[in-house]
Amino acid sequence: MGITERTKTWARRIKRDAVTLWFAYRDPRTPLAVKALCAFVVAYALSPIDLIPDFIPVLGYVDDALLLPALIWLAVKLLPPVVIEESRAKADDWMLSHGRKPVSKLGAVLIVALWIAVLIGAWVWWTRR
């Protein structure tokens, strides 16, 4: 298997695991702290807006290539195995029937709100110097 095929497989797995966390978040057997992590990861992963826009050289892809996979890995490791198995099956069914991952409008709103808060904070800091 070449590097291109491995990269495509890895990207499909990341998408599937983001949807897996979406289902795991809704499962009552998921511990509360892990639910919070899943909610954050899902809101970010399924948001149509990136935390660091891709047009920013190098940094734009750090969140997609390192941050998101690391957060997904952590959430998956913290979930009970039975929840992972059932959620992955649901995610596979979702991806087959819909052909795409869901989109989180709440995630987009949170990302925009975070950027606004950062800009306001920077403006306040700059004007008080």
Written description of the protein model:
The protein has 129 residues and is mainly α. The chain has one domain (3-127). The protein is 77% helix and 0% strand. It contains 5 helices and no strands. The protein has helices at 3-26, 32-45, 59-78, 81-98, 105-127. Helix 1 (3-26) crosses helix 2 and helix 1 crosses helix 4. The longest helix has 24 residues, at 3-26.
The coarse silhouette is globular
Q: H/E element string?
A: HHHHH
Number of helices: 5
User: What is the count of structural domains?
Assistant: 1
Terminal CA distance reads 56 Å
Largest sheet: none
| β-strand amount | under 5%
Number of strands: 0
